[in-house]
Amino acid sequence: MIEIKNNSVILSIGKNKKYDLPFLWLRDNCQCDSCRITETQEKQFLLHTVPVDISPKSVEVKDSNIVVDWPDDHKTFIPIKIIEESGSLRYPDHEEWPKDYKPQKFDWSEFLGNKEIAVEALKHFVKFGAIVLKNAPKEPNSLEFLSKRLGPIHEVLFERIHNVSVTGHVYNVAHTSKGLPPHNDFASYKSQPSIQALHMLENECEGGESIIVDGWQIVEDLEYDNPDYFEILKNFNVPFREFDEHNETYAEAPLIQCGNDGSIESFRFSNQLMQMIDPNRKNIKEFYKAYHEISSRIFDKKYHSTFRLNGGEVLIVASLRVLHARESFIPSGKRHLQDAYFFYDNAANNIVLLSN
Ligand SMILES: [Fe+2]
Ligand SMILES: [Zn+2]
Fold it and tell me: Are residues 250 and 327 in the same domain?
């Protein structure tokens, strides 16, 4: 059912679906062959070529399309189905971890070879921010193969595939046998890596259990319990730096970043990379109180999932949400981990691609 108002068209479908479609929206979304590039399905029509107060001569519903006649005799049609689809989620929303959550395990070869399993794994990944691949090769640089499902490697300085062992190049606390507090890697980049894959090649050491932490849950709870702390952490830029004699990375950014609907998009946390903040900065006292609070929440076990990552297993985390940590270990045997970074967008959009 159609009803024309002053600057929009009300479209009602059944009893409870209603859309208020602005005239400019209707003109902009015309699906005719002259308004689209038919080979690519891209838009060709340019909005500024019609007056801002454009108003239709007539509007009707015909064969499940909205059909609009404009004063310049252009005829617009839009299938109602695509209007209804425009509001649906492309992939699942994030979900709270159930009690005693452990990331679901998928077989390495099935993840790479079977589309259905890849979709199931990627859906679990976007919901909970973590999965584990088992039966992975124990060969160095095997993470390259994950590009088939996660898109190209997001390279950063130091190494394309990072080696973490106590015998290699030591530029970070991870390269010692000390416990590693919860963090996400490369907070020292403005565009911090959004997926981290941690590939355990060998793990013969005692201790060194892996811990992952749902950072978004911590942030959501903080927003509920103490909105003032949440606000300051959202607005206060913190400097981070990671470097060695050949590499320099540095960025300033707030610990919490939200989308314009208020939903959390990123939680940045790295005690080891955080730099001295200029003490003259406005609100530094308030920042430090809020920072103390969130720092203690990060160590609250209710947000943790702890497990042993064995040789031949790959932990993949949505690293703008899930922090990782490691218990200390006794360097009694070999322990070699490699990590690489990927783009979250590519992994999530592969759910759509692989579902076709
Ligand atoms: Fe790390
Ligand atoms: Zn058109």
Answer: yes
Count of structural domains within the chain: 2
Q: What is the largest CA-CA distance in the chain?
A: 81
Question: 34 and 135 share a domain?
Answer: no
The CATH number that applies at residue 126 is 3.60.130.10
How far, in Å, from the CA of 326 to the mean position of ligand 1? Answer: 9
Report yes or no on 90 lying in a domain.
Answer: no
Query: Which residues are bridge partners to 200 per DSSP?
Result: 313, 337
Q: Which ligand approaches the C-alpha of residue 317 most closely?
A: 1
Going from the Cα of 220 to the center of ligand 1, the distance in angstroms, rounded, reads 23
Cβ burial of 228 (10 Å; 0-12, 13-18, 19+) is exposed
Q: Which ligand is nearest to the CA of 212?
A: 1
Is the overall model pTM greater than 0.85, yes or no? yes
Confidence of residue 305 (pLDDT cuts 50, 70, 90): very high
Angle at 137 between CA 131 and CA 140, to 5 degrees: 100
Ligand whose nearest atom lies closest to the CA of 77? 2
Is 94 contained in some domain? Answer: no
Sorting pLDDT into bands at 50, 70 and 90, what band is 176? confident
Distance from the alpha carbon of residue 164 to the mean position of ligand 1, in angstroms? 9
- Please indicate, yes or no, whether residues 176 and 255 belong to a single structural domain of this protein: yes
What's the pLDDT tens digit per position in 186-242?
999 999 999 999 999 999 989 999 999 999 999 999 999 999 999 999 999 999 999
On whether residue 182 sits in a domain, the answer given is yes
Ligand at shortest distance from the CA of 187:
1
229-265: pLDDT as tens digits: 999 999 999 999 999 999 999 999 999 999 999 999 9
Q: Decide: residue 263, CB within 10 A, 0-12 exposed, 13-18 middle, 19+ buried.
A: exposed
Cα-to-centroid distance, 55 and ligand 1 (Å): 56
Q: Looking at the structure, do residues 136 and 274 belong to the same domain, yes or no?
A: yes
Q: Does residue 173 carry a pLDDT above 90? A: no
